[in-house]
Design brief:
Elements: H1 15-22, E1 26-30, E2 35-39, H2 44-64, E3 99-108, E4 119-123, E5 185-189, E6 195-201, E7 212-224, E8 227-240, H3 243-249, E9 282-284, E10 294-302
Parallel strand pairs: 3-10
Antiparallel strand pairs: 1-2, 3-6, 4-5, 4-7, 7-8, 9-10
Amino acid sequence: MHTHDAQQHDEPDNALVSRLLSRRRVLVLSGAAGAVVLGGAGTAAGRNAANGSTLDSVKAAASASSACMSLTTEQMEGPYYIDYELFRSDVIEDRTGIPLLLVLRAVDSATCKPIRNSAVEIWHCDASGVYSGYTQNGNGGGGGTPPGPMPSGPPPTDAPTAPPGGPGGAGGGHATPTDNLTWLRGIQMTDHQGFVVFRTVFPGWYAGRAVHIHTKVHTGGSRTSDGYTGGRTCHTGQFYFTEDSVKATANSVPYSANTMTRMTLDQDSIYPGTGTQGGLLELLYDTHHIERGVIGYITMAVDPNATNDGAGAPGGPLPTVSPSPSAS
């Protein structure tokens, strides 16, 4: 995996999420069914306790999932992967959107035991449907980019090249980056229970795809001063959101400014339609006030000894790469 010297160490969590959470009531889980209740937290200590309790409850639900008995579906990498190895739990940077706490667990599909001290990576578009690294591509309809600092000068000279195998070798070919921005991309090492937790924002949509998040699980290597070294990519997948949750975001800023025609989950040719096994997230949010935040969690059952880099993976016909991100 490619590594940049400036990105070798943990980056501090961006203060944006902390500010968002401090202005909103804390999500609290109650009951085995995982119903979500919004309750006030009058003090910082109370908020921290509630956050810890919520996360513990979500992890317990993910641990109890029977999904580990079914091998999670391999899916295409898409054209917009960049192996920056940004070790961090908060990937938001300057992006705006509905707070999303993403709780991911990796387990061995044969034993259901947690996969410890391995790396889980995510990347996804922002609320406007634009990927960092590809802001000049817009969101598939010639649209511009959302507010935020824009790069100056030509694309980075150290931008990653196409994966081994040439165009199409990693699911539709690899697009050449147009800038060196890094928001909504990150990687973390799993804990002793196989968990990683990312603070991000609910993704938006762009032409040709339902709302989704990309992921990779790396095993057999280790984190060093040079990044994640050795091992293999044992799983390449995508996470999906229920239609109800995506529709609930449509009237919230900044999603309401996205005029791109949205593809539904049922219309998406990449989503395998198999629920949790196919990457469908379990979601917790107030159905009347989704803007207060969402928790998404899932257990990924993978073969830690396999190599699945997203080349030729199931999930429908592989799209061709065009100047606009019509598929990823």
